[in-house]
């Protein structure tokens, strides 16, 4: 009897076999590899066993605040857009650190997309005449590839989105602008069905256009309407490129259900004016206050019939009702200011090996907001511990699932600069999820808040020289007023290193400052944020004592601590977050 050789494509090994012999019944390695991939959890082949052992080394935690009855029918699409010149390197941004903490091996629950920043080797500007390194520098200056970045993210969603999926986006700097532009394109044009790659350039042309009748017709005829469940960005810049570019619906977009924006208090370069996030409907400012007093009721918006009020838990009616309920709620926008300059908030100012850095504070805040907003993003529990979040597995937990401990309450003793001890360092580097001190996050915030501020005007003289040249930049009012668009929303300015302006509407919608700023103010007598809020009282000038003019200026350290900034009705213009307003009032006494 002759012997034949059967090649197992799945394992890549050679197995001796005779004409009369059959593959062993217990060896599932002979099955179709595609079937093995679909039912990999039951497959007993060597490759799948190895994969399962590797997966078991990870402990996953889902960002959810309460149980979602339709969670088994949903997956999360996470899109990450890095900043200008940022990619995987030795000084990664918060976008890469967030990406590192995401689960990427289970596409049935979560699908992750990462895009390197403008002017990187991952996104070369194709030009046969100009060398590649010069093309990348030019791209960083003028943002020539911005449109292709937006279209690439759109193509990912077009190919992978199915009804019921959650869409979550993150970005830093110009990557944040890209994410917000993509959200604006989805809002204005909609999402094409899968496979329509040829239509993407035309859809982008519709997005840039202003013929609303044609755009609405195109959206109705070709696209699906989708919501962005969560948009988290770090320090979005108001204009992109050496020559300012403007894209529609970047600062006003009612398709975003939850928006979180971390902004730098101490950035003062002329080309880094922040792009604020505003409520697209100004009348909602009054409605928000009414909503705080009157709880939201489904019966206020939905007919009280037995079919709509009590649908089955997993029924499509329940799912659509929940989505309608979310859409009817006023969009929640939260912008929080942090200590530091642009890269101190978005990351990339220090090497990866450095554990003490200002960017860690805004990263932890953003991830906590993912949990608060029920994004259902799946994280690696140990990666969150490495970032500094108090993730642990309670010893009394019956299912062994990790949890994110509640945010700690700071006390007066926290506002003292301390050196990190060897014992504390060993605790911070301990990744046993069953053993975690309750002040874990407090210690990280304490040390990160006192990290160095990397002011580029002091580090790089080139940036300082640019401050003494006239520049054509976006008006501060245009960053909060959707009506101011086009070239009329820009102006000539001579910045000379002055801090960022905070306009009146931004303050009225809620000026939130992270509580670690107060920590640094108490610990460092030489620190005062460079930002210039529009809250100081009008003063008489020397030339004309009878005429009072309002002058924007940076507040002193004493004004920040006491809150005595001469704002209307003698109220503090900002609020310490999270949950520190009452405590800071107590410290004034």
UniProtKB/TrEMBL annotation:
SUPFAM superfamilies registered for this protein in UniProt: alpha/beta-Hydrolases
Region (Disordered): 1-31, 307-326
Residue ranges with Polar residues bias: 14-31
Domain T6SS Phospholipase effector Tle1-like catalytic as annotated: residue spans: 75-369
Name of the protein: T6SS Phospholipase effector Tle1-like catalytic domain-containing protein
Organism the protein comes from: Hermanssonia centrifuga
């Amino acid at each position: 009897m002759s012997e034949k050789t059967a090649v197992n494509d799945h394992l890549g090994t050679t197995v001796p076999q005779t004409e009369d012999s059959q593959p062993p019944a217990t060896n599932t390695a002979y099955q179709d590899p595609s079937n093995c991939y679909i039912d990999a959890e039951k497959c007993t082949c060597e490759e799948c066993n190895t994969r399962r052992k590797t997966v078991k080394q990870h402990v996953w935690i889902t960002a959810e605040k309460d149980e979602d009855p339709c969670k088994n029918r949903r997956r999360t699409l996470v899109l990450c857009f890095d900043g200008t010149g940022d990619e995987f390197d030795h000084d990664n941004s918060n976008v890469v650190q967030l990406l590192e903490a995401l689960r990427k091996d289970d596409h049935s629950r979560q699908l992750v997309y990462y895009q390197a920043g403008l002017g990187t080797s991952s996104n070369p500007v194709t030009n046969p005449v100009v060398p590649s390194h010069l093309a990348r520098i030019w791209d960083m200056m003028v943002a020539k590839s911005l449109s292709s970045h937006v279209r690439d993210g759109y193509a990912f969603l077009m190919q992978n989105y199915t009804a019921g999926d959650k869409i979550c986006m993150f970005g830093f700097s110009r990557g944040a602008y890209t994410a917000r532009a993509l959200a604006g394109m989805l809002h204005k044009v909609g999402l094409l069905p899968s496979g329509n790659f040829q239509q993407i350039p035309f859809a982008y042309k519709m997005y840039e256009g202003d013929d609303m009748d044609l755009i609405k017709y195109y959206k109705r005829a070709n696209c699906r309407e989708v919501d962005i469940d969560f948009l988290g960005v770090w320090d979005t810049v108001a204009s992109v490129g050496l020559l300012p570019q403007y894209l529609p619906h970047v600062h006003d977009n009612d398709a975003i259900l939850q928006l979180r924006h971390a902004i730098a208090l101490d950035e003062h370069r002329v080309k880094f004016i922040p792009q604020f996030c505003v409520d697209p409907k100004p009348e909602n400012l009054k409605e928000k206050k009414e909503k705080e007093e009157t709880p939201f009721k489904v019966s206020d918006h939905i007919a009280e019939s037995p079919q709509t009020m009590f649908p089955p838990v997993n029924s499509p009616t329940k799912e659509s009702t929940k989505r309608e309920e979310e859409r009817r709620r006023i969009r929640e926008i939260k912008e929080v200011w942090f200590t530091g300059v642009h890269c101190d908030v978005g990351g990339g100012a220090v090497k990866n090996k450095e554990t003490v850095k200002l960017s860690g504070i805004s990263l932890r805040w953003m991830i906590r907001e993912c949990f608060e907003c029920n994004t259902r993003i799946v994280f690696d529990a140990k990666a969150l511990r490495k970032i500094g979040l108090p993730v642990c597995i309670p010893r009394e937990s019956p299912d062994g699932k990790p949890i994110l401990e509640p945010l700690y309450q700071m006390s007066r003793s926290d506002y003292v600069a301390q050196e990190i001890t060897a014992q504390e360092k060993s605790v911070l580097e301990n990744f046993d999820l069953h053993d975690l001190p309750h002040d874990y996050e407090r210690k990280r915030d304490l040390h990160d808040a006192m990290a160095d501020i990397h002011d580029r005007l002091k580090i790089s003289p080139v940036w300082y020289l640019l401050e003494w040249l006239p520049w054509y930049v976006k008006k501060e009012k245009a960053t909060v007023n959707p009506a101011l668009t086009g070239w009329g929303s820009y102006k000539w300015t001579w910045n000379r290193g002055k801090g960022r302006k905070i306009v009146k509407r931004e303050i009225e919608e809620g000026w939130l400052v992270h509580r670690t700023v107060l920590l640094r103010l108490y610990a460092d007598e030489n620190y005062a944020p460079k930002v210039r809020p529009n809250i100081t009282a009008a003063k008489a000038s020397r030339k004309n004592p009878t005429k009072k003019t309002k002058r924007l200026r940076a507040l002193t350290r004493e004004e920040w601590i006491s809150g005595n900034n001469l704002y209307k009705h003698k109220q503090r213009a900002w609020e310490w977050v999270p949950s520190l307003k009452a405590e800071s009032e107590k410290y004034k006494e």
